[in-house]
Amino acid sequence: MRKRNAAGPHTTQNLVTITHVHLHYITQKPIAPHTHTLTVFYVRDKHPHNSQIHIRTYSVSISLTNSSQSPMASLSIFLVFNLFFSTFFPTSSSISTKNLILPLKIQSVPSGSGQKPPNKLAFHHNVSLTVSLSVGSPLQAVTVVLDTGSELSWLRCKKTPTTPLWFDSQRSKTYTPVPCSSPTCRTRTRDFTLPVSCDPKKLCHAIVSYADATSVEGNLAYDTFRFTNSDLPRVVFGCMDSGSSSNQDEDSKTTGLLGMNRGSLSFVSQMGFSKFSYCISGQDSTGVLLFGDTKISWLGPLSYTPLVNMSTPLPYFDRVAYTVQLEGIKVAGTVLGLPKSVYVPDHTGAGQTMVDSGTQFTFLLGPVYTALKNEFLKQTKSVLRVYEDPDFVFQGAMDLCYRIDRKRVGLPVLPSVTLMFRGAQMSISGERLLVQVPGMIKGNDQIHCFTFGNSDLLGIEAYVIGHHHQQNMWMEFDLANSRVGLAQVRCDLASQKLGMGL
Questions:
Q1: Are 417 and 433 in contact (CB under 8 A)?
Q2: What is the pLDDT of residues 365-392, one digit of tens each?
Q3: pLDDT of the residue at 258
Q4: How far is CA 266 from each of CA 224, 233, 262, rounded to the nearest angstrom?
Q5: How many CA atoms lie within 13 A of 424 on its CB side?
Q6: Would residue 147 show up in a list of annotated catalytic residues for this protein?
Q7: Known catalytic residue: 293?
Q8: Strands (E), 210-306
Q9: Which of 65, 129, 239, 491 measures 20 to 30 Å from 467, CA to CA?
Q10: Active-site residue, from 45, 223, 318, 356
Q11: What is the rounded end-to-end Cα distance, in angstroms, of the chain?
Protein backbone atom coordinates (compact mmCIF):
# COMPACT_ATOMS: atom_id res chain seq x y z
CA MET A 1 0.00 0.00 0.00
CA ARG A 2 1.56 3.25 -1.09
CA LYS A 3 0.39 5.98 1.26
CA ARG A 4 2.37 9.17 0.76
CA ASN A 5 3.18 11.46 3.61
CA ALA A 6 5.12 14.60 4.37
CA ALA A 7 8.88 14.58 4.44
CA GLY A 8 11.49 16.11 6.67
CA PRO A 9 14.18 18.67 5.91
CA HIS A 10 16.42 18.61 2.87
CA THR A 11 19.54 16.51 3.32
CA THR A 12 22.72 15.97 1.29
CA GLN A 13 24.33 12.83 -0.13
CA ASN A 14 27.95 11.95 0.54
CA LEU A 15 30.08 10.17 -2.03
CA VAL A 16 31.40 6.67 -1.43
CA THR A 17 34.72 5.14 -2.43
CA ILE A 18 35.28 1.38 -2.57
CA THR A 19 38.73 0.08 -3.36
CA HIS A 20 38.12 -3.65 -3.75
CA VAL A 21 35.60 -6.36 -3.09
CA HIS A 22 36.15 -10.05 -2.41
CA LEU A 23 33.41 -12.58 -3.13
CA HIS A 24 33.37 -16.30 -2.48
CA TYR A 25 30.63 -18.57 -3.67
CA ILE A 26 30.17 -22.25 -4.43
CA THR A 27 29.00 -23.84 -7.64
CA GLN A 28 28.39 -27.35 -8.93
CA LYS A 29 31.13 -27.25 -11.57
CA PRO A 30 34.78 -26.24 -11.21
CA ILE A 31 35.33 -22.91 -12.95
CA ALA A 32 38.49 -20.87 -13.03
CA PRO A 33 38.46 -17.70 -10.92
CA HIS A 34 37.45 -14.73 -12.98
CA THR A 35 36.17 -11.21 -12.65
CA HIS A 36 32.49 -10.32 -12.38
CA THR A 37 30.83 -6.95 -12.29
CA LEU A 38 29.08 -5.96 -9.09
CA THR A 39 26.37 -3.32 -9.22
CA VAL A 40 25.89 -1.89 -5.74
CA PHE A 41 22.63 -0.07 -5.17
CA TYR A 42 21.76 2.29 -2.37
CA VAL A 43 18.49 1.98 -0.43
CA ARG A 44 17.20 5.05 1.33
CA ASP A 45 13.94 6.68 2.10
CA LYS A 46 12.51 8.72 -0.68
CA HIS A 47 12.69 12.46 -0.03
CA PRO A 48 10.44 14.65 -2.15
CA HIS A 49 13.17 17.27 -2.58
CA ASN A 50 16.27 15.09 -2.88
CA SER A 51 15.91 11.68 -4.45
CA GLN A 52 19.39 11.35 -5.94
CA ILE A 53 20.40 7.72 -5.69
CA HIS A 54 23.50 6.54 -7.48
CA ILE A 55 24.56 3.22 -8.90
CA ARG A 56 28.23 2.26 -8.71
CA THR A 57 29.77 -0.60 -10.67
CA TYR A 58 32.87 -2.39 -9.39
CA SER A 59 35.05 -5.29 -10.49
CA VAL A 60 35.12 -8.14 -8.01
CA SER A 61 37.47 -11.08 -7.66
CA ILE A 62 35.57 -14.37 -7.40
CA SER A 63 36.89 -17.73 -6.27
CA LEU A 64 34.85 -20.85 -6.87
CA THR A 65 34.90 -24.37 -5.42
CA ASN A 66 32.89 -27.54 -5.90
CA SER A 67 29.71 -28.15 -3.93
CA SER A 68 26.45 -30.02 -4.22
CA GLN A 69 24.56 -26.82 -3.66
CA SER A 70 23.25 -24.72 -6.52
CA PRO A 71 24.89 -21.34 -7.20
CA MET A 72 21.79 -19.36 -6.29
CA ALA A 73 21.16 -21.38 -3.12
CA SER A 74 24.67 -20.81 -1.81
CA LEU A 75 25.64 -17.40 -3.14
CA SER A 76 26.58 -15.46 -0.04
CA ILE A 77 26.35 -11.74 -0.42
CA PHE A 78 27.06 -9.44 2.47
CA LEU A 79 26.84 -5.84 1.38
CA VAL A 80 27.55 -3.22 3.97
CA PHE A 81 27.25 0.41 3.08
CA ASN A 82 25.52 3.54 4.19
CA LEU A 83 23.60 5.50 1.64
CA PHE A 84 22.57 8.70 3.26
CA PHE A 85 24.51 10.77 5.83
CA SER A 86 27.66 8.62 5.73
CA THR A 87 30.81 7.42 4.00
CA PHE A 88 32.39 4.00 4.10
CA PHE A 89 35.07 2.95 6.55
CA PRO A 90 37.86 0.52 5.50
CA THR A 91 38.52 -2.67 7.37
CA SER A 92 40.34 -5.97 6.94
CA SER A 93 40.09 -7.59 3.53
CA SER A 94 40.23 -11.14 4.87
CA ILE A 95 37.36 -13.32 3.69
CA SER A 96 35.46 -16.39 4.78
CA THR A 97 33.65 -18.90 2.61
CA LYS A 98 30.25 -17.53 3.59
CA ASN A 99 30.49 -13.79 3.09
CA LEU A 100 31.10 -11.14 0.52
CA ILE A 101 33.20 -8.56 2.33
CA LEU A 102 33.56 -4.96 1.32
CA PRO A 103 36.55 -3.01 2.67
CA LEU A 104 34.34 -1.33 5.21
CA LYS A 105 33.55 -1.87 8.85
CA ILE A 106 31.79 -5.21 8.56
CA GLN A 107 30.59 -8.16 10.57
CA SER A 108 30.56 -11.69 9.22
CA VAL A 109 27.02 -13.03 9.15
CA PRO A 110 26.89 -16.80 8.52
CA SER A 111 24.01 -18.14 6.50
CA GLY A 112 21.70 -20.80 7.84
CA SER A 113 22.02 -24.38 6.65
CA GLY A 114 20.24 -24.83 3.35
CA GLN A 115 19.16 -21.16 3.27
CA LYS A 116 20.16 -18.43 0.89
CA PRO A 117 22.67 -16.24 2.69
CA PRO A 118 21.63 -12.68 3.46
CA ASN A 119 21.93 -9.62 1.29
CA LYS A 120 22.59 -6.68 3.60
CA LEU A 121 21.88 -3.10 2.63
CA ALA A 122 21.56 0.23 4.38
CA PHE A 123 18.85 2.78 3.81
CA HIS A 124 17.63 6.20 4.85
CA HIS A 125 14.00 6.51 5.84
CA ASN A 126 11.51 9.32 5.92
CA VAL A 127 8.55 8.83 3.61
CA SER A 128 9.17 5.56 1.77
CA LEU A 129 12.15 3.35 1.06
CA THR A 130 13.71 3.52 -2.39
CA VAL A 131 16.23 1.32 -4.12
CA SER A 132 18.28 1.76 -7.29
CA LEU A 133 19.04 -1.19 -9.52
CA SER A 134 19.42 -2.01 -13.20
CA VAL A 135 16.99 -3.56 -15.65
CA GLY A 136 17.20 -4.77 -19.25
CA SER A 137 19.89 -5.57 -21.80
CA PRO A 138 21.79 -3.30 -22.01
CA LEU A 139 21.22 -2.33 -18.38
CA GLN A 140 19.21 0.78 -17.58
CA ALA A 141 19.35 2.38 -14.14
CA VAL A 142 16.00 2.65 -12.36
CA THR A 143 14.92 3.97 -8.95
CA VAL A 144 11.91 2.31 -7.34
CA VAL A 145 9.89 2.58 -4.13
CA LEU A 146 10.25 -0.47 -1.89
CA ASP A 147 6.73 -1.41 -0.74
CA THR A 148 5.86 -4.39 1.48
CA GLY A 149 2.19 -3.60 0.92
CA SER A 150 2.24 -4.21 -2.84
CA GLU A 151 2.70 -7.23 -5.08
CA LEU A 152 3.42 -6.14 -8.64
CA SER A 153 6.70 -4.40 -9.34
CA TRP A 154 6.38 -1.89 -12.14
CA LEU A 155 8.31 0.70 -14.13
CA ARG A 156 7.14 3.71 -16.09
CA CYS A 157 7.73 2.91 -19.74
CA LYS A 158 6.70 6.28 -21.12
CA LYS A 159 8.48 9.56 -20.53
CA THR A 160 6.34 12.61 -19.77
CA PRO A 161 7.14 16.16 -18.64
CA THR A 162 6.17 15.23 -15.05
CA THR A 163 7.85 11.78 -15.04
CA PRO A 164 11.30 12.20 -16.58
CA LEU A 165 12.62 8.91 -15.16
CA TRP A 166 11.47 5.99 -17.26
CA PHE A 167 12.45 2.58 -18.59
CA ASP A 168 12.82 2.36 -22.38
CA SER A 169 11.59 -1.16 -23.12
CA GLN A 170 12.41 -0.82 -26.83
CA ARG A 171 16.12 -0.52 -25.98
CA SER A 172 16.15 -3.83 -24.09
CA LYS A 173 16.92 -6.97 -26.09
CA THR A 174 15.60 -9.15 -23.25
CA TYR A 175 12.25 -7.37 -22.84
CA THR A 176 9.37 -9.76 -23.57
CA PRO A 177 5.67 -8.86 -23.20
CA VAL A 178 3.46 -11.37 -21.37
CA PRO A 179 0.66 -12.70 -23.65
CA CYS A 180 -2.87 -13.09 -22.30
CA SER A 181 -2.74 -16.82 -22.92
CA SER A 182 0.27 -17.43 -20.67
CA PRO A 183 -0.09 -19.03 -17.20
CA THR A 184 1.58 -15.93 -15.76
CA CYS A 185 -1.32 -13.79 -16.92
CA ARG A 186 -4.09 -16.30 -16.27
CA THR A 187 -3.12 -17.69 -12.84
CA ARG A 188 -0.32 -15.76 -11.15
CA THR A 189 -2.27 -12.50 -11.14
CA ARG A 190 -5.13 -13.92 -9.04
CA ASP A 191 -4.29 -11.72 -6.01
CA PHE A 192 -4.28 -8.44 -7.93
CA THR A 193 -6.83 -5.93 -6.64
CA LEU A 194 -8.22 -5.48 -10.15
CA PRO A 195 -8.37 -8.38 -12.62
CA VAL A 196 -6.05 -8.28 -15.61
CA SER A 197 -7.40 -8.00 -19.15
CA CYS A 198 -6.34 -8.44 -22.77
CA ASP A 199 -5.31 -5.43 -24.81
CA PRO A 200 -5.89 -5.24 -28.60
CA LYS A 201 -2.52 -6.96 -29.20
CA LYS A 202 -3.51 -9.90 -26.95
CA LEU A 203 -1.04 -8.81 -24.28
CA CYS A 204 -1.67 -9.02 -20.53
CA HIS A 205 -2.91 -5.64 -19.32
CA ALA A 206 -2.95 -4.61 -15.63
CA ILE A 207 -4.28 -1.67 -13.63
CA VAL A 208 -2.83 -1.04 -10.16
CA SER A 209 -4.43 1.42 -7.73
CA TYR A 210 -3.21 2.64 -4.34
CA ALA A 211 -4.60 4.03 -1.10
CA ASP A 212 -3.54 7.57 -2.02
CA ALA A 213 -5.94 7.45 -5.02
CA THR A 214 -3.13 7.11 -7.58
CA SER A 215 -3.09 4.41 -10.23
CA VAL A 216 -0.93 3.12 -13.06
CA GLU A 217 -1.69 0.82 -15.96
CA GLY A 218 0.17 -0.99 -18.68
CA ASN A 219 1.26 -4.44 -19.81
CA LEU A 220 3.00 -7.21 -17.89
CA ALA A 221 6.40 -8.17 -19.23
CA TYR A 222 9.56 -10.17 -18.51
CA ASP A 223 13.05 -8.71 -18.37
CA THR A 224 16.38 -9.14 -16.62
CA PHE A 225 16.81 -7.42 -13.24
CA ARG A 226 20.30 -7.01 -11.82
CA PHE A 227 20.25 -7.48 -8.06
CA THR A 228 23.69 -6.94 -6.46
CA ASN A 229 26.00 -8.92 -8.77
CA SER A 230 23.37 -11.37 -9.98
CA ASP A 231 21.29 -11.13 -13.13
CA LEU A 232 17.76 -12.39 -12.55
CA PRO A 233 16.28 -13.27 -15.95
CA ARG A 234 12.59 -13.14 -16.80
CA VAL A 235 11.43 -11.19 -13.78
CA VAL A 236 7.74 -10.35 -14.21
CA PHE A 237 6.90 -6.65 -13.85
CA GLY A 238 4.49 -4.07 -15.16
CA CYS A 239 5.60 -1.81 -18.01
CA MET A 240 3.25 1.09 -17.31
CA ASP A 241 2.45 3.76 -19.87
CA SER A 242 -0.31 5.75 -18.15
CA GLY A 243 -1.66 6.62 -14.72
CA SER A 244 -2.70 9.31 -12.27
CA SER A 245 -0.65 11.02 -9.57
CA SER A 246 -1.35 12.80 -6.29
CA ASN A 247 2.21 14.15 -6.00
CA GLN A 248 3.92 14.87 -9.31
CA ASP A 249 7.07 16.25 -7.67
CA GLU A 250 7.56 13.00 -5.78
CA ASP A 251 6.74 10.80 -8.77
CA SER A 252 9.27 12.68 -10.91
CA LYS A 253 12.10 11.26 -8.81
CA THR A 254 11.32 7.54 -9.14
CA THR A 255 10.93 5.15 -12.04
CA GLY A 256 8.42 2.85 -10.40
CA LEU A 257 7.80 0.48 -7.51
CA LEU A 258 9.22 -2.79 -6.15
CA GLY A 259 6.47 -4.98 -4.68
CA MET A 260 7.50 -6.95 -1.60
CA ASN A 261 4.35 -8.60 -0.22
CA ARG A 262 3.57 -12.34 -0.18
CA GLY A 263 2.04 -12.53 -3.64
CA SER A 264 3.50 -14.93 -6.19
CA LEU A 265 4.63 -12.06 -8.43
CA SER A 266 6.21 -9.92 -5.70
CA PHE A 267 9.93 -9.32 -6.06
CA VAL A 268 10.83 -11.20 -2.87
CA SER A 269 8.75 -14.19 -4.01
CA GLN A 270 10.33 -14.24 -7.47
CA MET A 271 13.79 -14.03 -5.86
CA GLY A 272 12.97 -17.01 -3.68
CA PHE A 273 13.97 -15.52 -0.32
CA SER A 274 12.05 -16.99 2.63
CA LYS A 275 12.91 -14.19 5.04
CA PHE A 276 13.90 -10.54 5.20
CA SER A 277 14.46 -8.11 8.06
CA TYR A 278 14.99 -4.43 8.65
CA CYS A 279 15.84 -2.08 11.50
CA ILE A 280 15.11 1.66 11.27
CA SER A 281 16.92 4.09 13.54
CA GLY A 282 14.84 6.73 15.26
CA GLN A 283 17.87 8.88 16.01
CA ASP A 284 19.68 9.54 12.75
CA SER A 285 17.19 8.36 10.11
CA THR A 286 19.32 5.47 8.93
CA GLY A 287 18.73 1.76 8.93
CA VAL A 288 19.69 -1.64 7.68
CA LEU A 289 17.79 -4.05 5.44
CA LEU A 290 18.68 -7.75 5.13
CA PHE A 291 17.43 -10.37 2.71
CA GLY A 292 17.71 -14.03 3.69
CA ASP A 293 18.28 -15.94 6.90
CA THR A 294 20.52 -14.36 9.52
CA LYS A 295 22.07 -15.58 12.76
CA ILE A 296 23.09 -12.52 14.78
CA SER A 297 24.51 -13.43 18.18
CA TRP A 298 23.95 -10.04 19.85
CA LEU A 299 20.31 -9.77 18.77
CA GLY A 300 18.08 -10.87 21.60
CA PRO A 301 15.15 -13.24 21.12
CA LEU A 302 12.36 -11.93 18.96
CA SER A 303 8.70 -11.97 19.91
CA TYR A 304 6.73 -13.54 17.10
CA THR A 305 3.18 -12.91 16.04
CA PRO A 306 1.65 -15.23 13.45
CA LEU A 307 0.55 -13.98 10.09
CA VAL A 308 -3.20 -14.20 9.57
CA ASN A 309 -3.93 -16.40 6.56
CA MET A 310 -7.27 -16.30 4.80
CA SER A 311 -7.96 -19.10 2.34
CA THR A 312 -11.34 -17.74 1.23
CA PRO A 313 -11.28 -14.59 -0.91
CA LEU A 314 -13.09 -11.72 0.80
CA PRO A 315 -13.82 -8.33 -0.78
CA TYR A 316 -11.90 -6.21 1.76
CA PHE A 317 -9.15 -8.62 2.83
CA ASP A 318 -5.72 -8.49 1.23
CA ARG A 319 -4.61 -12.13 1.40
CA VAL A 320 -0.99 -11.44 0.43
CA ALA A 321 -0.36 -8.57 2.85
CA TYR A 322 1.67 -9.04 6.04
CA THR A 323 -1.45 -9.30 8.19
CA VAL A 324 -1.16 -9.77 11.96
CA GLN A 325 -3.80 -9.81 14.67
CA LEU A 326 -4.07 -6.65 16.75
CA GLU A 327 -5.69 -7.50 20.10
CA GLY A 328 -5.59 -4.23 22.00
CA ILE A 329 -3.97 -0.84 22.56
CA LYS A 330 -2.85 0.75 25.79
CA VAL A 331 -1.77 4.28 26.68
CA ALA A 332 0.81 4.07 29.46
CA GLY A 333 -0.80 1.39 31.66
CA THR A 334 -4.41 1.97 30.56
CA VAL A 335 -5.83 -0.51 28.06
CA LEU A 336 -8.51 0.98 25.82
CA GLY A 337 -11.90 -0.25 26.97
CA LEU A 338 -12.86 -1.89 23.70
CA PRO A 339 -13.84 -5.51 23.01
CA LYS A 340 -11.26 -7.59 21.15
CA SER A 341 -13.82 -8.16 18.43
CA VAL A 342 -13.31 -4.61 17.11
CA TYR A 343 -9.80 -5.61 16.02
CA VAL A 344 -10.92 -8.78 14.20
CA PRO A 345 -11.76 -8.67 10.46
CA ASP A 346 -15.48 -8.93 9.80
CA HIS A 347 -17.26 -11.23 7.34
CA THR A 348 -16.20 -8.98 4.44
CA GLY A 349 -12.53 -8.96 5.47
CA ALA A 350 -12.61 -5.33 6.59
CA GLY A 351 -10.53 -4.68 9.70
CA GLN A 352 -7.33 -6.61 9.00
CA THR A 353 -4.07 -5.26 10.51
CA MET A 354 -1.24 -4.84 7.99
CA VAL A 355 2.45 -4.14 8.63
CA ASP A 356 3.35 -1.88 5.73
CA SER A 357 6.62 -0.17 4.78
CA GLY A 358 4.80 1.81 2.10
CA THR A 359 2.91 3.84 4.70
CA GLN A 360 4.64 6.34 6.98
CA PHE A 361 2.28 6.59 9.95
CA THR A 362 -0.24 4.26 11.59
CA PHE A 363 -3.96 4.32 10.80
CA LEU A 364 -6.75 2.81 12.88
CA LEU A 365 -10.41 2.22 12.15
CA GLY A 366 -12.68 4.99 13.41
CA PRO A 367 -13.96 3.60 16.75
CA VAL A 368 -10.48 2.51 17.85
CA TYR A 369 -8.87 5.75 16.69
CA THR A 370 -11.45 7.79 18.60
CA ALA A 371 -10.88 5.78 21.80
CA LEU A 372 -7.09 6.17 21.49
CA LYS A 373 -7.38 9.89 20.74
CA ASN A 374 -9.59 10.49 23.78
CA GLU A 375 -7.33 8.55 26.14
CA PHE A 376 -4.20 10.30 24.84
CA LEU A 377 -5.91 13.68 25.24
CA LYS A 378 -6.88 12.78 28.79
CA GLN A 379 -3.35 11.75 29.77
CA THR A 380 -1.60 14.71 28.12
CA LYS A 381 -3.93 17.61 29.00
CA SER A 382 -1.51 18.89 31.66
CA VAL A 383 1.57 18.90 29.39
CA LEU A 384 0.29 19.65 25.87
CA ARG A 385 -1.85 22.46 24.38
CA VAL A 386 -4.34 21.29 21.75
CA TYR A 387 -4.36 23.15 18.43
CA GLU A 388 -7.99 24.18 18.14
CA ASP A 389 -8.86 24.34 14.45
CA PRO A 390 -11.72 22.04 13.41
CA ASP A 391 -10.95 22.63 9.73
CA PHE A 392 -7.35 21.38 9.97
CA VAL A 393 -6.70 17.67 9.44
CA PHE A 394 -3.06 16.76 8.82
CA GLN A 395 -2.67 14.54 5.74
CA GLY A 396 -6.42 14.04 5.61
CA ALA A 397 -6.63 11.64 8.56
CA MET A 398 -4.72 13.05 11.56
CA ASP A 399 -6.93 15.51 13.42
CA LEU A 400 -5.26 15.62 16.84
CA CYS A 401 -2.64 18.36 16.80
CA TYR A 402 -0.83 20.44 19.40
CA ARG A 403 0.87 23.81 19.76
CA ILE A 404 4.53 23.49 20.82
CA ASP A 405 6.52 26.59 21.73
CA ARG A 406 9.18 27.18 19.06
CA LYS A 407 11.76 27.93 21.77
CA ARG A 408 11.18 24.65 23.54
CA VAL A 409 13.94 22.05 23.24
CA GLY A 410 12.38 18.62 22.86
CA LEU A 411 8.91 17.43 23.78
CA PRO A 412 7.50 16.99 27.28
CA VAL A 413 7.36 13.49 28.72
CA LEU A 414 4.49 11.69 26.98
CA PRO A 415 2.72 8.43 27.79
CA SER A 416 3.74 5.55 25.54
CA VAL A 417 1.25 3.91 23.20
CA THR A 418 1.56 0.13 22.97
CA LEU A 419 0.08 -1.95 20.16
CA MET A 420 -0.68 -5.42 21.54
CA PHE A 421 -0.51 -8.19 18.96
CA ARG A 422 -1.02 -11.90 19.45
CA GLY A 423 2.28 -12.95 21.05
CA ALA A 424 4.10 -9.61 20.68
CA GLN A 425 3.89 -5.91 21.50
CA MET A 426 5.12 -2.73 19.84
CA SER A 427 5.66 0.23 22.17
CA ILE A 428 5.75 3.75 20.72
CA SER A 429 7.06 6.56 22.84
CA GLY A 430 8.68 10.00 22.86
CA GLU A 431 9.14 11.87 19.61
CA ARG A 432 7.61 9.05 17.56
CA LEU A 433 4.20 10.05 18.97
CA LEU A 434 4.17 13.54 17.46
CA VAL A 435 5.35 14.87 14.11
CA GLN A 436 5.94 18.53 13.28
CA VAL A 437 3.85 19.89 10.43
CA PRO A 438 6.40 21.30 7.96
CA GLY A 439 6.30 25.08 7.62
CA MET A 440 3.26 25.59 9.83
CA ILE A 441 3.73 28.31 12.47
CA LYS A 442 0.99 29.84 14.59
CA GLY A 443 2.31 32.85 16.53
CA ASN A 444 5.23 31.56 18.58
CA ASP A 445 4.17 27.94 18.21
CA GLN A 446 4.95 25.11 15.87
CA ILE A 447 2.18 22.63 15.11
CA HIS A 448 2.80 18.98 15.93
CA CYS A 449 0.28 16.22 15.19
CA PHE A 450 -0.39 12.82 16.73
CA THR A 451 1.17 10.14 14.52
CA PHE A 452 -1.92 7.94 14.54
CA GLY A 453 -4.67 8.67 12.03
CA ASN A 454 -8.23 7.65 11.23
CA SER A 455 -8.45 5.01 8.48
CA ASP A 456 -12.09 5.91 7.88
CA LEU A 457 -11.07 9.36 6.66
CA LEU A 458 -8.79 7.76 4.06
CA GLY A 459 -11.36 5.23 2.89
CA ILE A 460 -9.14 2.35 4.08
CA GLU A 461 -11.02 -0.56 5.67
CA ALA A 462 -7.99 -1.72 7.65
CA TYR A 463 -5.51 -1.04 10.42
CA VAL A 464 -2.14 -0.10 8.90
CA ILE A 465 1.11 -0.09 10.92
CA GLY A 466 3.44 2.39 9.21
CA HIS A 467 7.24 2.42 9.26
CA HIS A 468 7.41 5.52 11.50
CA HIS A 469 6.21 3.38 14.40
CA GLN A 470 8.60 0.57 13.50
CA GLN A 471 11.62 2.73 14.38
CA ASN A 472 14.06 1.10 16.80
CA MET A 473 12.37 -2.24 16.26
CA TRP A 474 14.05 -5.22 14.65
CA MET A 475 11.40 -6.34 12.16
CA GLU A 476 11.68 -9.83 10.69
CA PHE A 477 9.32 -11.09 8.00
CA ASP A 478 9.55 -14.88 8.14
CA LEU A 479 7.65 -16.14 5.12
CA ALA A 480 8.68 -19.77 5.61
CA ASN A 481 7.10 -19.92 9.07
CA SER A 482 4.30 -17.43 8.32
CA ARG A 483 5.14 -14.99 11.12
CA VAL A 484 6.53 -11.55 11.90
CA GLY A 485 9.19 -11.20 14.59
CA LEU A 486 10.01 -8.01 16.45
CA ALA A 487 12.24 -6.82 19.26
CA GLN A 488 13.10 -3.39 20.60
CA VAL A 489 16.67 -2.47 19.72
CA ARG A 490 18.75 0.65 19.19
CA CYS A 491 18.92 0.48 15.42
CA ASP A 492 21.77 2.99 15.22
CA LEU A 493 23.82 0.68 17.48
CA ALA A 494 22.63 -2.35 15.54
CA SER A 495 23.98 -0.75 12.38
CA GLN A 496 27.33 -0.18 14.08
CA LYS A 497 27.49 -3.77 15.30
CA LEU A 498 26.72 -4.96 11.81
CA GLY A 499 29.78 -3.03 10.68
CA MET A 500 28.17 -0.03 9.00
CA GLY A 501 29.88 2.62 11.09
CA LEU A 502 26.81 4.83 11.08
A1: yes
A2: 999 999 999 999 999 999 999 999 988 9
A3: 87
A4: 15, 15, 7
A5: 20
A6: yes
A7: no
A8: 215-227, 230-244, 256-259, 275-280, 286-291, 303-306
A9: 239
A10: 356
A11: 29
